[in-house]
Every structure is written in C-alpha cells, then in structure tokens.
Amino acid sequence: MDTTSIKKSLRAETLARRDALPADYRREGSESMAKVALNLAPGTVVSGFWPMRTEVDVRILMDSLAAQGLRICLPAILDKTTIVFREYLPDHAMVDMGFGTMGPPAHSAVLDPTVMLVPLVAFDNRGHRIGYGAGYYDRAIAALHAKGILPRLIGIAFDCQEVDRVPDEPHDVRLSEMLTESGLRAFEPG
After folding, report:
1. Is 136 annotated as a binding residue?
2. Is 88 annotated as a binding residue?
C-alpha cells in the first residue's frame, strides 16, 4: 500500500476510535489537559485551534493560558493553501472559518506563534502526525521556519489516537511534544 492509502486508512480507523469516546470522557480529558503546566512565559504567543467534531476541546486550555498572560491566536484559512494566525480574545465575537470551526474576525491582529497547539488525527511515539490531509499546518510551520521562527510544537489528542507508526514524508514536521489526557510527554529529538 502507498503512503497516501496508509494515511487514509489510519485516518478512518483513528477517527472511528476518537468518535467512539463518550462525550463525558472527552470533556473530562479536555479539562485535565488544561491543568497541565506548559511552563510558558507571559507574553508568549500560542496558537490554538477551534475544536471540530470530537476533537479535544482546547478552548479550556486556551482560556487558561490567556488568563496566565499569554497571547492566543487561532488559524484563519485565507485560501486553499494558506492559513494565518489571528489573535484570539475570549470575550470577542468569533466568525465561521468553514470546516466546522470558528476564528477571530479579519480585523484581528495577525501573530506569529512561538508555541503551537497542533490538532491531529493520529500520532506515533516518534512525534509524527497525520492531520486531516490538507497540509495547512505543514505549510504554516514551513512559513514560520522561513521567518526564522522555530515554534515549540505540541500535538493535542486523546490517547486512543496513537498508532504504531505514521508513515512520514520529507515535508512532514515532527512534533516536539504530545499532550493527551495522560499528560505531556516529550519526543526524542531527531
């Protein structure tokens, strides 16, 4: 089987496991992740994401980080290949971003995150991930790298989303850490 077919199969299997988690379990897991200390300095720019379907609800974590003095931003889809990160203020109105997500309106400040909470479908114990297949995060991370910004990449998922091995390709960027309901763990460099 080729890489694309393997990723498609892993996506389907992993999403089925995540979708099968009871709503109470997902809520409690999301709340426990919000209590994990990420040890970030006030003013640090952190990108989060608006949860869709049965993803971890990172809004709890984002609100906690904002209360600690961090600047939060969310992805905004500009076109079929590009996202930027707009500043998220918990008390401001959000707009429909498509794909079942919400984000800050167009007049919001565009920020370059130095820490990214990365959504994903599946991950392995090497720090490789499978997203939803559009490549937005790979391109956004590459754009940050081109600016000289090497963000701390923290994957966000439930434990059931771990797979034995994600097939990796040259353009894939490894996560440095993974946050699940079991806690925060770092991946070995390289």
Report:
1. yes
2. no
Regions of the chain short of the pLDDT cut 70: 190
- Which amino acid belongs to residue 75? P
Predicted confidence at residue 19, as pLDDT, reads 98
Residue 46, domain CATH: 3.40.50.10420
**Look-up of token digits 């971890």:** 56
Looking at residue 190, its pLDDT comes to 62
In sequence order, what are the beta bridge partners of 142?
Answer: none
Report whether 6 belongs to an annotated binding site.
no
pLDDT in the model for residue 154: 97
* Rounded distance between C-alpha atoms, residue 12 and residue 120, angstroms: 13
**pTM higher than 0.85:** yes
Residue 133 is assigned to a ligand binding site: yes
Token representation of residue 141: 């991370």
Q: What is the per-residue pLDDT for 135? A: 82
Residue 80 assigned ligand-binding role: no
Classify residue 148 by its DSSP letter. Answer: T
User: Is 98 annotated as ligand-binding?
Assistant: no
Domain housing 148: 3-186
Please tell me whether 55 is known to bind a ligand. Answer: yes
Domain count of the fold of the chain: 1
Instruction: Tell me: is residue 41 an annotated ligand-binding position.
Output: no
11 among annotated binding-site residues = yes
Residues 52 and 123: their CA atoms lie apart, in Å, by 18
In angstroms, rounded to a whole number, what is the distance separating the alpha carbons of residues 101 and 94?
Answer: 10
